[in-house]
Write a structure and sequence with these properties.
Layout: E1 4-9, E2 13-20, E3 34-40, H1 42-52, E4 57-64, H2 67-78, E5 86-89, E6 94-101, E7 106-111, H3 120-125, H4 127-131, E8 133-139, H5 144-156, E9 160-164, H6 173-177, E10 181-182, H7 186-191, H8 195-200, E11 205-209, E12 215-219, E13 222-226, H9 239-252, H10 257-271, H11 284-294
Parallel strand pairs: 1-4, 1-8, 2-6, 4-5, 8-9, 9-10, 10-11
Antiparallel strand pairs: 2-3, 6-7, 11-12, 12-13
Helix pairs in contact: 1-9, 9-10, 10-11
């Protein structure tokens, strides 16, 4: 029985964000112009994106018992994300140190913290939440074996699995075979061996996000380009996460993949027009407005 639209299995972080003129090179020190802290983590961002697109969304994650963990839980509640499967553990809440350049580019260092405690045993305890969702979405800021465990539960229940393979690393064949839609960016897809290798490994479809150039949907023997939306980008931090969460929401709503990708591209574009992660993730109404204006 499907009781949820989207279940996100992944990371939750407190983002520490510095604004800089440009991204520093190796060994270089730059003076930042501004600093703020905000909710983030690829899992939390994607859960917020799905919820703001109107999807009934639950989150499977771990945060610390510290003030950062409490703040992240408060954000989840405010966005009507189900938190029954968010554990509080004796470890610091995850952190991400982010430099955002004036041109919108970013550089990110992630410290797992509590995210590393989301083990396969934790996943098993929350299997009912995973199995209750139409779409199960995960990333790689949690242990890979935990993603595999979650996708096995999803597949056994006949659900659709989406994987955002970030940060990019070797993907076990077990994980590829359990993934219906893989969503790397243009850099990650090369690190993973290219679309042909991923499809040959068992992935159902590969969606490559390409920033200002839009996205590509690649399946065996076919490729579809998703045109970009023209916006004034100032911060790309949560663009990919907004894309993934919006895609999951629209697939759960019954859209075909090609149609859902157009919605996702609009969500990703809008996310670049504001500073910060969760604060920049758009709502369904703003996405609809952008799409209507581009029609």
């Amino acid at each position: 029985m499907i009781e949820l639209d989207v279940c996100v299995v992944g990371s939750a972080n407190l983002d520490l964000v510095a604004r800089v003129e440009r991204i520093p090179g190796p060994g270089e020190t730059l003076c930042g112009r501004d600093y703020f802290e905000a909710a983030g983590g690829k899992g939390l961002n994607q859960a917020v994106a799905a919820a703001r697109c109107g999807a009934r969304t639950a989150f499977v994650a771990c945060v610390g018992t510290d003030a950062a963990g409490a703040a992240l839980l408060a954000l989840m509640t405010s966005d009507r994300i189900g938190t029954a499967s968010v554990g509080r553990v004796d470890a610091p809440t995850g952190r991400a140190m982010i430099a955002v350049a004036d041109g919108g580019e970013n550089s990110i260092v992630v410290i797992a913290g509590a995210n590393a405690t989301l083990t396969p045993a934790c996943i098993a305890r929350h299997g009912a939440t995973i199995a209750a969702a139409s779409i199960v979405l995960a990333q790689l800021e949690i242990p890979t074996e935990s993603v595999i465990a979650a996708f096995k539960i999803a597949r056994a229940a006949g659900r659709t699995t989406l994987l955002n393979p970030a940060p990019a690393g070797r993907l076990p064949l077990d994980l590829l075979r359990l993934t219906d839609v893989l969503i790397p960016n243009q850099h990650e897809v090369e690190l993973l061996g290219g679309t042909a290798a991923l499809l040959g490994g068992g992935v159902g479809a590969v969606v490559v996000t390409e920033g200002a150039r839009g996205a590509r949907l690649v399946t065996t023997g076919a490729e579809l380009r998703i045109a970009p939306f023209a916006v004034d980008a100032i911060d790309t931090t949560a663009a990919g996460d907004s894309f993934c969460g919006a895609l999951a929401a629209r697939l759960a709503a019954g859209d075909e993949l090609s149609s859902a990708l157009r919605w996702a591209a609009a969500a990703g574009a809008l996310a670049t027009t504001k500073v910060g992660a969760a604060a920049s993730i758009p709502t369904a109404s703003s996405i609809s407005s952008l799409m209507a204006g581009a029609a």
